Amino acid sequence: RPDLLDMEGLSADEIRALLDTAQKLKEMTGGCRNKISLLTGKTCANLFFENSTRTRNSFSLAARRMGADTVEFSSSGSSVTKGETFVDTAKTIEAMGVDWVVTRHAVPGTPHLLSRELACSVINAGDGPHDHPTQGLLDMLTILQHRGSIEGLTVALVGDIAHSRTARANIWGLSKLGAHVIVCGPPTLVSPRWSELGFEVAHSLDEILPRCDVLNLLRIQFERQSARPFPSVHEYAALYAMNRARMKRAKDNILIMAPGPINRGVEITPEVADGPHSVILEQVTNGIAVRMAALWLTAGAKSNLTT
Ligand code: CP
């Protein structure tokens, strides 16, 4: 059974198939709102060991929009609090008769571990700072809907690259589809190693801003930083927050994206988050579309949606 474990392991053709399928499913469901019955009789289990609003709810809705049942598991309130291990928990849920385990965990590689331990399909809904493939896909789908193509676009990922699974999913996915990717942020949050891997590294948003087609503004992940963060939130906002003044120096048709949750006033100001260039809520809707595609294609379906 196929899994969806990370963006780094997908080929360009596999990414295109996921994006094409997501777009078709979005249209078939009237913008992700109506039910279809492609997955009737199947069951999707959400195993979340970290908090989530967007990913968890959109996986649930994606499964239910396609006719599948869902099992909702949260580590708090479960028998994990009595000492049950992650793998035993996942095997227990699988034994209830599920076709997918969608997992989010703070430890990188946990979906890969489950892939070896379980017989059902495993989908990574975020493993620590490592990867978040459906987030990368929904970001790319949103860009495609606005620009028609990703090839040749200049896309900057701005902020806490060091701790961001969204950054990694976008870096691998966008570069495979031919975008020029810039990783931009303070030196404490952007490793110089990215330039060794062929990506542009920038520390000044103001310098790169005029040539960017898309900005994806990442949250500082305080929960993954043990020491007091540097720069401070105040310093970070002064140097990297997308605000009204910076919008004046951006391209007229720039797309402003954020994976969410957003911290208003830190990486983005309210007038930009809610302004005409922002596609943040379109990203949320597209999350249902790409998660329907992920479920469909890992169920072993053909990407052309013939059954
Ligand atoms: N972007 C994202 O993963 O959001 P949630 O943490 O709310 O799922």
Automatic annotation (TrEMBL):
Biological pathway: Pyrimidine metabolism; UMP biosynthesis via de novo pathway; (S)-dihydroorotate from bicarbonate: step 2/3
Translocase keyword on record: no
Entry's Gene Ontology BP terms: 'de novo' pyrimidine nucleobase biosynthetic process; 'de novo' UMP biosynthetic process; amino acid metabolic process
UniProt binding sites for L-aspartate: K82, R165, R219
SUPFAM superfamilies: Aspartate/ornithine carbamoyltransferase
Binding residue positions for carbamoyl phosphate: R54, T55, R104, H132, Q135, G260, P261
A cellular component annotation (GO) from this entry: cytosol
Protein name (Swiss-Prot/TrEMBL): Aspartate carbamoyltransferase
Taxonomic path: Bacteria, Pseudomonadati, Planctomycetota, Planctomycetia, Pirellulales
Gene encoding the protein: pyrB
